[in-house]
Specification:
Blueprint (H helix, E strand, L loop, with lengths): L2 H8 L3 H17 L4 H17 L10 H21 L4 H7 L10 H16 L3 H12 L4 H8 L3 H23 L1
């Protein structure tokens, strides 16, 4: 793993994505994770690394940086799996408080920008992205739902993320 691989990953290069996937999956399996967990962890970690590549500062190697992301994803993965508290019950115990200091105009602009950004995606990219990111499905689960391979869903999700990241970068400027 080097800076060039990270740059290629951020640009949506499929080979760089696959190389990083294998690297993180091998790390996760080395930690004793089941292959299915290693796949989920590596997919999410590499996806996040691609989206956040511009935050890499070079204070550690690219491999160490990606493994740091993978470690956080791994913790989240197993924390969510073992969570016992019912979401509905927690709502009853902790009612949601409405904040009065929310900038409604800013929220409306962000909502419009998000909708406009999503329209830039192909229907397949939008569907893969929403199933995996919003609904939390793995690439395998999303693929089964929409009749595509897990590899194809990964590619669609990466392409969508790249397009959305470009759009949000332009929106912030």
């Amino acid at each position: 793993m080097d800076r060039q691989t990270l740059e290629l990953l951020a640009a949506g290069d499929r080979e760089a994505f696959e190389r990083c996937l294998r690297f993180v999956a091998q790390w996760a399996i080395g930690k004793g994770d089941a292959p299915v967990d290693a796949e989920d962890i590596s997919e999410e970690a590499v996806f996040r690394a691609a989206l956040r590549a511009d935050t890499y500062r070079g204070k550690s190697s690219v491999a160490t940086w990606i493994i740091g992301i993978a470690e956080n994803v791994r913790k989240e993965h197993f924390r969510h799996r073992t969570r016992k508290v019912s979401w509905a019950a927690s709502l009853d115990d902790n009612p949601i408080e409405v904040q009065n200091d929310v900038d409604v105009e800013d929220m409306a602009l962000r909502q419009m920008a998000a909708e406009e950004a999503m329209q830039k995606l192909t229907p397949d990219e939008r569907q893969a992205f929403l199933l995996c990111v919003r609904d939390g499905l793995t690439s395998h689960q999303a693929g089964e739902r929409i009749g595509k391979s897990a590899d194809r869903v990964r590619h669609l999700k990466m392409e969508a993320a790249r397009k959305l990241a470009d759009y949000w970068r332009d929106f912030r400027e």
